[in-house]
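Work Package 3 (structural annotation) set out to generate three-dimensional models for the target panel prioritized at the project kickoff. During this period the team completed the workflow that converts sequence records into discrete structure tokens, so that structures can be stored uniformly alongside our sequence database. As a representative example, we reproduce one entry of 180 residues exactly as it appears in the project archive.
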Amino acid sequence: MKTAIIIFLAALAASMPALADEAAATAGPSDERSALDAEVQGLRREVVDLNRDLFMLEEDLLFPASTQVAVFVSMDVGTFFALDSVQLKVDDKEVSNYLYTDREQDALKRGGVQRLWLGNLKAGEHEVTAFFTGKGPHERDYKRGTTLKVEKGVGAKYVELKISDKVSQLQPEFVVRVWE
């Protein structure tokens, strides 16, 4: 239904220049033409506003706040680990598998946070498992996993997968925590 509405609105928006040109060719005075142009521009703005409202409604319907879970990835320094990819499983079902570019790795090292997954979970206990793949100390291939049991209640839940350096052991540390 929504797709049909969007297609109709896109066709309407695409046909508006043709309508304006046709009206300009048949109209005599320039006052009528400028009034028609203003009306067409007003209709275009309304179509854009309606499209934005439909997008927001779709987001609310697909990801209601009461069931929403978002998982983020962050990195602190990254001296002992160069991230290549993250695989995310929720309740033993793979929900995301992301391969990082050099620019994305740099952004994470500078304090950036990436939304890895956004989904819906029913209330109750869920297991979130993440597998990190990359280059560890001494440029060796490194793959580690971490797991956290998450109690999903009413309202949105935000989970952070944080990669940090554990200087005391010269190793990376992978921590999963729930934002309160």
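The radius of gyration is 25 Å.
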